[in-house]
Design brief:
The chain is of the alpha+beta class and 87 residues long. It contains three helices and three strands. It has helices at 2-7, 23-34, 52-66; strands at 12-13, 40-44, 47-50. A three-stranded antiparallel beta sheet has the order 1-3-2, with no helix packed on it. Strand 2 (40-44) and strand 3 form a beta hairpin. It is elongated, with a radius of gyration of 20 Å.
Length: 87
């Protein structure tokens, strides 16, 4: 369910989500995924939902990933090690 919603957050069709669970269960899962974000109903037959804020967040993350130079990312020095014991 989450995969379908994240794939197209502007047009979430619960009738396309497997397994074919009852609609109220799928709607509950959608509410959990949306969290505090508003959920819009775009259509009735079939029921089509939209989570515009989730769509914006996904686009923002894609832009961040696109503009991140992975060659500049590296593991730094060890700041804390559980093997260091103070006695």
């Amino acid at each position: 369910m989450a995969g379908k919603a994240l794939e197209r957050p502007a047009e979430i069709r619960l009738d396309e989500v497997e397994p074919s669970q009852p609609l109220p269960l799928k709607e509950g899962l959608l509410r959990d995924l949306a969290g505090d974000r508003p959920v819009d109903v775009l259509g009735v037959n079939p029921v089509v939902y939209s989570v515009p804020e989730l769509e914006r967040e996904i686009k923002d993350l894609a832009a961040i990933r696109k503009n991140t130079d992975l060659s500049k990312l590296a593991i730094g020095k060890i700041v804390f090690d559980t093997e260091d014991r103070i006695e």
